[in-house]
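Section: Multi-chain targets

For targets with more than one molecule, the full set of components is provided together so that the structure can be written out for the assembly as a whole rather than chain by chain. Components appear in the order listed by the source. The example entry contains two components.
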Amino acid sequence: MADLGFILLVLSLVLSVYAVCVSIAGVKLGQHVFVTSGRYATFAVCGLLVFSTLVLVSLFVTHDFSVAYVAAHSNLAMERQFIWVAFYSGNEGSLLFIATALGVLSSMALVFHFNIDRTVLTYANVLNMLVLCFFVGIMIFLANPFQTLDFIPTDGEGINPLLTHYGMFIHPPVMMTGLICVTIPFSFAMGALIAGKTGDEWIKNSRWWGLVAWCLLGCGLLLGGWWAYTILGWGGYWAWDPVENSGFMPWLGLTAFLHSIMVQARRGMFRSWNVVLIICAFVLACFGMFINRGGPVPSVHSFGASNLGWMFLIFLGVVSLASLGLFAYRYSTLNSSNNLQSALSREAAFLANNLLLLFIAFVTLWGVVFPLISEIFQGETVTVVAPYYNKINGPAFLVLIFLMAIGPQLSWRHGSFRSLGRSMIFPLAAFITTFVLLLILGVWNLYAVVSYSLCAMVTASIVHEWWKGTCVRHSHGEFYVTAFMRLISSNKPRYGGYVVHLAIVMLALGVTGSSFFKQQIDVVLNQGDTVQIDQYSVEYVGIRENATTDRIAREVFLAISDQKNDLGMVTAVYDYYPAFRMASTKSGLRSTPIEDLYIIPSEFFDDGSVGFRININPMVWWIWISGPFLILGTLITLWPRESIPQVSAKET
Amino acid sequence: MFHLPANLMFGFVRKQPSGLTILNVSVMNWFAVVACILFLVLSAGCLEQVTNKEVRAQRLDKQLICPVCPGETIDQSNVEVAKQMKDLVRFQLDSGWTDAEILGFFVDRYGQGILAAPPAAGFSLLVWLVPVVIFPMGLVSLILFIHFNRRKSALVASKTADITVDLSKYLPKVDKELGMSNRRYHHEE
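Its structure, encoded as tokens over all components, is:
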């Protein structure tokens, strides 16, 4: 069975190399048959990889511990459903997952595209296959997931207990798929450059696939935050850990790219800049994978760690040099067909947005690599985590939110202060009202007040825009709801974008609330003891202990009430895994849009008392709710445009 | 700012700007933008002073890295060393140490790596300095780009006629739709 998996991998490598050669030959010799053959080879590679994934999963299901990877990442005691998690919980399995995802995505890219030039499509596919060759090659030569052991152990080592969480069914796959999905928009761009078709055709495809990757990465990051929040037991969701950062940077790069290509689509500008941006996004995604695979920086995400870092570093270097070389070669054909006419225009606002996003990405990158630089030049270890990023990126995010309010109100080509002023009256009023209101309410933290006011400003500008459009349609006799729906569907990229902006506002609300108004106490409670935090009182009611083969599970029951009402019970779970000498904590949580009451049992004493950490995390709820809006917005944006009804000659 | 005659101050509104105003305009525009940014950054800097001891202790916890768990602060970590360090921080606060003294104490013991963010001194100054230098550089290149692009577009525009079709008769209709019927048009030329 394990041999079958390996053979499938070898076959897929052979076929992907075949696809590369035959596609290039087809284009060069003008043989349509060859190109078609390359296309079918791609589909076959996709099938082989999916098959090989299934083989590995079935090895897990049958507990075949003769396979080293299965023995290292599962055992007999684990719950069945976590076998899927175990499959990608280590280095080799996650490589297989990434390769399979890329296989599926590149097949999809061959099918779902916008009538692109055949040569460009073929070259794009060649690039996808080359990246795929790299991953499959690594598996075959350096990290074979189907490696067998000389002996058959009676039981496996088991899965890392921190991963036995439902978030783990989605977070790692979404994150890995998102990272590798950046390949597709990148290869459409590079394919266009190689083919010399440097018009505006490629951005349609790159935009579509870029949005897919962007949404996947965004959701992956949010799910990761949710996992950290509910199971890691420190009361936070984002620690600016190097691996988190490495998923965040390509997301920022893609965000910049997705904004900037609108200018190219609309005005034929920034053609070369957009190529640079998509190269940046892909290189950052490669950098992310490098950090993830035994990168040189310490991180809490050591699950996929390996000694393959150098391979990924070489890959990173080759990709950057090759794509920049190609860009330089085609640079002369990437002229803008228009010039920027005013600093007060949508185009300029997009440039400012790009500047800020790239700045944030750069700061994040700099923070990740600085410890290495310090180590090399000074021999001194330094750590760069949250306080650094908060200080430097925090203000940049605020300016970004400000731009989010003002940018969409600016007109293309050149705006005027008068029309901008007119459309900003309502948002500015929202800003000032929130600002004053918060100060009156006694919120004196100016950072937070500014952030909330900016959030109000963005929301107001979006709602105002929607309201204006709906009213116009209403005046033509449409019912308000219909008018609103038709408004949205009349310009999906634009209004979908607004939904995404709203999601970002929600995210900002949550981040601001939980960063500035978090309350925290550490207490030791005996059974029946009550502790007061803010308006809540928390009573430690009891504990249930349950030892199974692989863990000691402790369920802690707590009764919560505020001054007036009894708010019911929450349960916090503390599972200790002796084999790993590791505990996973599921926090007791009472979540409302205003604040979360978050209780983690941290320590159990012999006399029966329990140490608790109790947090009040304001507005964290909004962070999780932003996820569905992010997806909704992306879906609206991606939704194909209805075919425009033919205007008959008489009417014109 | 809106009271000033827009055509005088921001020449691009309708007429083709002359060479000199372009420069003035861009400076004025960017002055406004920079002022906005400065306002945001400065207002962000004014944080409230903290006197509460536990809040101070938690703030320190977040600035100290747990020596045995990579990348986690002692606030996040649950291991024994982190707990001891937390207790030590609270003891030192009770004994009247300042935040700087406490952080210094740990740096002496464990080296700079114990701090969650490197100090802005010595070689580590670079980590702070580079972003602070990069951002203005990016901003300046953005402004220069916009400036030169506008000059180019003005040159192009002077050679070609701007609008070939007279769209002005549609403008009142658009305004009516948007509920801005009180707007007046200045038909120049």
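The radius of gyration of chain A is 27 Å.
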